[in-house]
Write a structure and sequence with these properties.
- By secondary structure, the chain is α+β, with helices and mostly antiparallel strands.
- It is about 25% helix and about 30% strand.
- α6 (about 255-265) crosses α7.
């Protein structure tokens, strides 16, 4: 299988250190400890597609360290700067898009973890139960309220991303904000009280007016903008008539396997493919293989 982007992380997440304050302090003081280089939460990337790292002393005095894990025993951290304020928008700048194209697979996974957890801290500095400011614990993987004692943990929002298949063709759509000509799989959040299969059927029906029967899972991917788990599926459509929800899509259409294969191979075709680091690219690749 074509490996989805932002997966293949190589760090030992070292959960054992998250519960041991003395061991965590020793990791922070370790001369081999390194801090992930981020500028407005965008990664610094070396010429060979690796993340940039620096000494922990480069962080501000107010910085709180989040343990990303161990690289062959060497501690790796990200820094949360409380004074920075709100989290950056989920919008991906041209600089970030260029960096994502350069990053090696496992490196992108480390960035995804850091970006998502930093975003969560920025958005959850106050207790959802009583509104009191919270403090970081568990090496940056949780926050605790000093007033009511509630503990809060980083959230991940499940999103289904899928193509409907009918008569050897795949249903793809496009949003008006995308680059001209780009089409991709349909997607939407899984709602409370809903299974993955039910979410796939509902989203395709809502966005394109197509009824789907059988659903099969293909792969998953963390998506750190801000913190989703993308669940890629293929649904078998009962018909091909489209009724497009223009609040969600600009347009949609059916594409043959040959058309999809040509586009993925870089040949001229009826649409532009999603970028390789997006799981929609993995999904189309697997579907095109039959």
């Amino acid at each position: 299988m074509n490996v989805p982007g932002f997966t293949g992380g190589m760090l030992d997440r070292a959960d054992r250190l998250r519960h041991d304050e003395e061991a965590l302090a020793a990791a922070i003081g370790n001369w081999q400890a390194r801090l992930l280089k981020l500028h407005a939460w965008e990664p610094e990337v070396t010429d060979d597609g690796r993340l940039g790292w620096t000494m922990l002393s480069e962080a501000s005095e107010e910085a709180e360290f989040i343990l990303l894990g161990l690289d062959e025993g060497r501690p790796r951290f990200a820094a949360f700067e409380p004074a920075v304020g709100a989290a950056p928008a989920a919008f991906r700048s041209p600089t970030l898009l260029a960096a994502l194209d350069q990053l090696q697979m496992g490196e992108a996974a480390t960035f995804a973890a850091a970006r998502s957890v930093l975003d969560w801290h920025a958005r959850h500095r106050f207790c959802a139960n009583c509104g009191t400011p919270t403090t970081m614990f568990r090496a940056g993987w949780a926050r605790r309220c000093g007033n009511c004692g509630a503990e809060h943990f980083p959230r991940v929002d499940p999103v289904v991303i899928m193509i409907a298949e009918h008569d050897g063709r795949a249903l793809l759509g496009r949003q008006p904000s995308w680059p001209a000509g780009r089409y991709s799989a349909l997607a939407g959040f899984v709602e409370p009280g809903e299974s993955i299969e039910e979410a796939v059927r509902r989203e395709i029906a809502e966005e394109a007016g197509v009824r789907v029967g059988a659903v099969r899972y293909v792969a998953s991917q963390p998506w750190p903008f801000p913190s989703q788990l993308m669940i890629a599926c293929v649904g078998i459509a009962e018909g091909d008539a489209l009724t497009i929800d223009t609040n969600e899509l600009e347009t949609a259409g059916w594409f043959t396997r040959d058309e999809v294969r040509d586009v993925l191979a870089g040949k001229e075709g009826p649409f532009l493919a999603p970028p390789p680091y997006a799981i929609a690219h993995t999904l189309l690749t697997e579907w095109a293989r039959g």
